[in-house]
Fold:
Amino acid sequence: MTPAPMALPQAAETILARLRDAGYSAYIVGGSVRDSLRGVLPHDYDMTTDATPEEMHEVFRDYRLIDTGIRHGTVAVMMNREQYEITTFRVDGDYLDCRHPDSVSFTRSLREDLARRDFTMNAIAYSPEDGYQDPFGGIMDIERGIIRAVGDPETRFREDALRILRALRFSATLGFEIEEETARAASHTRELIKNVSRERIRDELMKLLAGEHCIEVLRRFPDILATVIPALAPLYDCPQNSLYHLYPVWEHTLRVVEGLANQPPLLRLVGLLHDVGKPACRTTDAKGKDHFKGHPEVSAEIVEGVMRDLRFDNKNRETAVLLTRIHDLRIPPREADVLRLLSEIGYENFLLWNDLQRADNNAHDPSNPVIIRGKQNIAAIRRLGEELQSRGACYRLTDLALTGKDILAETCLTGKAVGEALGLLLGAVMDGRVTNTREALLLYLRTEILPTLS
Ligand code: ATP
Ligand code: MG
Structure:
């Protein structure tokens, strides 16, 4: 059955019509055609045409154009304050580095342009006049939920190994199956991913982790995952014979990631990595029970390396390392302890830590009394943290009703001693020894702190 015509924004219709009226062919192509066929509203509308960039400049001479990727034939037209990318039909030259074509050349053939695209679902063109142009059976693959390489999968992955990760990412986000031959070729050529820039790998990995169906993909392609994060490989066959656990380490890990659905991809990544230190820390006692003493610290060190390797920025790297290091931290569900933790890691990290602990705990043996108590504590700690935060509890230096400037003005302290005094004041407020008002803090400073500092 032919699918219904694609609903297009007015601006896209205008662009297509303009090119047509000037004697060129022009189509919507790629992700937006795929998404609209899936019944999902596209997030942008890429177009393809046989007009060259110079010819596009001529056709749209009264519009603002941006040469976003002139070398690859891409020009963006600004219409209704939105940017529409139009790319000249092209064929890619040889790929010498498994990632970038050596050269690109323009063609007047739509079919040739569609043939260079990665998957059949992404190789469909549409125009109001000609309807769907689907030389590789993409519509049927979308109906069946299948990701299939255009042409010979192994050749296509050898040309550009990023496509391997794109296949996994689309499978994770769309919930589509990777067709068997395509999947086999992806595993077979996986080592070529090492030729892809770490930044691109990271971006695909994060999109994959954000996917609703990411667990199925992680479960199905551990070999490909290990080429991206080699530190994961030892987890795959690491036993976990423990009173608290039902599953070996890798299965436990997958369940933690699963429990972090709808959480930021960074937290899912931490879930994936939180136990990477376990294989190196594993010892088995006389009763055959496994122990993993010190694994959070070892995991944190490995995570540091993984985050650096994938070129994460400092903030994300530090967050991931911190959360890994404290993933097993136990504190009593008491206000004073929660306040102290808030002071050490901040509210944002506290929430992430608590979500991680909940998912981690849920992936243990749910019938074990220690795990049951853990679950209650984790929930109680969450409530306390939220309460303290909404009450505006004082746990950071900036929460104090007294600033460093005040101390400089009101006392004879200078330099490092000011910071020291502020730290002591914060500790006193958090312990309830003094209330957080300017007067009370000054009095406390003069009577309790100054004598100890001088
Ligand atoms: P998204 O929803 O993520 O934007 P998309 O399919 O639009 O999905 P883009 O990365 O925006 O993906 O690429 C646009 C189109 O360009 C794809 O649909 C595909 O036809 C083609 N394409 C992108 N990357 C590649 C690649 N590495 N190899 C071959 N074709 C590609
Ligand atoms: Mg796109």
Notes: The chain has a mean pLDDT of 95. Residues 30-31, 44 surround magnesium ion (ligand 2) (CB under 6 Å). The chain has 22 helices and 13 strands. The first strand starts at residue 26 and ends at 29.
